[in-house]
Design brief:
- With 49 residues, the chain is of the alpha+beta class.
- The chain has one domain.
- It is built from two helices and two strands, in the order E-H-E-H.
- The chain has a two-stranded antiparallel ribbon.
- The protein is globular and about 30 Å long.
Length: 49
Amino acid sequence: MRIRGGAEARAVAALLGKKVEGEELVIYRPELREVRRRLPTTTYYLFLP
């Protein structure tokens, strides 16, 4: 999963204890699960054709 945007990437990185470089952060399924566990209403899924 990609998180784009400086403020958004920094917020999720701080939540997960990761370091972010630039305006984009890549997280994987276990990390997404942790974000959804801590902040259940902050994410949504988007399916692109």
